[in-house]
From TrEMBL:
<feature type="binding site">
    <location>
        <position position="12"/>
    </location>
    <ligand>
        <name>Zn(2+)</name>
    </ligand>
</feature>
<feature type="region of interest" description="Disordered">
    <location>
        <begin position="44"/>
        <end position="64"/>
    </location>
</feature>
<comment type="similarity">
    <text>Belongs to the DNA gyrase inhibitor YacG family.</text>
</comment>
<feature type="binding site">
    <location>
        <position position="32"/>
    </location>
    <ligand>
        <name>Zn(2+)</name>
    </ligand>
</feature>
<comment type="function">
    <text>Inhibits all the catalytic activities of DNA gyrase by preventing its interaction with DNA. Acts by binding directly to the C-terminal domain of GyrB, which probably disrupts DNA binding by the gyrase.</text>
</comment>
<dbReference type="Pfam" id="PF03884">
    <property type="entry name" value="YacG"/>
</dbReference>
<dbReference type="GO" id="GO:0008270">
    <property type="term" value="F:zinc ion binding"/>
</dbReference>
<protein>
    <recommendedName>
        <fullName>DNA gyrase inhibitor YacG</fullName>
    </recommendedName>
</protein>
<dbReference type="GO" id="GO:0006355">
    <property type="term" value="P:regulation of DNA-templated transcription"/>
</dbReference>
<dbReference type="GO" id="GO:0008657">
    <property type="term" value="F:DNA topoisomerase type II (double strand cut, ATP-hydrolyzing) inhibitor activity"/>
</dbReference>
<dbReference type="InterPro" id="IPR005584">
    <property type="entry name" value="DNA_gyrase_inhibitor_YacG"/>
</dbReference>
<feature type="binding site">
    <location>
        <position position="9"/>
    </location>
    <ligand>
        <name>Zn(2+)</name>
    </ligand>
</feature>
<keyword id="KW-0479">Metal-binding</keyword>
<keyword id="KW-0862">Zinc</keyword>
<feature type="binding site">
    <location>
        <position position="28"/>
    </location>
    <ligand>
        <name>Zn(2+)</name>
    </ligand>
</feature>
<comment type="subunit">
    <text>Interacts with GyrB.</text>
</comment>
<dbReference type="InterPro" id="IPR013088">
    <property type="entry name" value="Znf_NHR/GATA"/>
</dbReference>
Length: 64
């Protein structure tokens, strides 16, 4: 039998159990999952790297 992984939640840092019953993994709760989603939507979280459209301001991408 495999051991359960016990990583911490990336949002609040609480210990977290990665089991099939935890539908919010890698987060500890729906609240932390939604906080993370909001950070991506507000662009406070980004994937590092060069922009896909470097010569187009990000506000203009909606017009593409």
């Amino acid at each position: 039998m495999k051991k359960e992984q016990k990583p911490s939640c990336p949002i609040c840092g609480k210990p977290n159990t990665w089991t099939p019953e935890n539908t919010f993994k890698p987060f500890c709760s729906e609240r932390c999952k939604l906080i993370d989603l909001g950070e991506w939507a507000n662009e406070t979280r980004k994937i590092p790297g060069d922009p896909v459209y470097p010569d187009v301001p990000s506000g203009d991408l909606e017009d593409l």
